[in-house]
Design goal:
Blueprint (H helix, E strand, L loop, with lengths): L1 H12 L8 H21 L11 H11 L5 E2 L6 E3 L2 H9 L1 H7 L14 H6 L1 H6 L20
Antiparallel strand pairs: 1-2
Helix pairs in contact: 1-2, 2-5, 3-4
C-alpha cells in the first residue's frame, strides 16, 4: 500500500498528467469520501478558497469559461457553466467525489485485489487495461522505494 500512497503523492505533485493506477484512484476516492463524511458529521464547510495562485486560476477560468451559464438554442439544456461556477467546483470538496473520476472501476477493489480484477473477464468487459510493464503506467522513481 505504500507504493499506492507514493504514487498518489507523485500524481498530485506532477506537472504532467498521467493515468493513475486503479489503487491510486481508490485511495484518493477513499480519502475524499472520509473527509466529506467527517466534515458533514462535524458541520464543517468543505468550500475553501484556493490558498495559492488563486488569481492565476481565476484568470485561466475567465479565459476558458463564459461570465454566465450558456444554454442550448432551445434554452433547455445547460451547455457550459460560468467561470464562477467552475471555480466553486474547484474550491468545494463536495464536487470532487462525482466530477474528478472519469469512471468508478476502482470501486471493484472493494471485493477484488488489483491482480484478480485484471485477470477477470470483468476487466475486459469494462475496458480496464493492465497498463503495467512500462506501457503507460506511472513508474515510481527507484529512490522513493529505498
Amino acid at each position: 500500500m505504500g507504493k499506492a500512497f507514493l504514487g498518489l503523492k507523485a500524481l498530485l505533485e506532477s506537472e504532467y498528467e498521467f493515468v493513475p493506477e486503479l489503487v491510486m484512484e481508490y485511495v484518493m476516492y477513499s480519502l475524499i469520501k472520509l473527509r466529506l463524511e467527517t466534515t458533514d458529521r462535524l458541520g464543517i464547510r468543505t468550500q475553501e478558497p484556493l490558498s495559492c495562485q488563486r488569481d492565476y486560476v481565476v484568470e485561466a477560468l475567465r479565459g476558458a469559461y463564459p461570465d454566465e451559464r450558456e444554454y442550448s438554442d432551445d434554452g433547455e439544456d445547460l451547455v457550459r457553466l460560468s467561470w464562477r461556477e467552475e471555480l466553486e467546483r474547484i474550491e468545494d470538496l463536495h464536487y470532487y467525489e462525482n466530477t474528478y473520476f472519469w469512471d468508478f472501476d476502482f470501486m471493484l477493489l472493494d471485493s477484488l485485489t488489483e491482480d484478480e480484477l485484471m485477470d477477470s473477464p470483468v476487466s475486459g468487459y469494462l475496458g480496464i487495461e493492465n497498463i503495467g510493464d512500462g506501457g503507460g503506467k506511472f513508474m515510481l522513481p527507484p529512490e522513493w522505494l529505498e
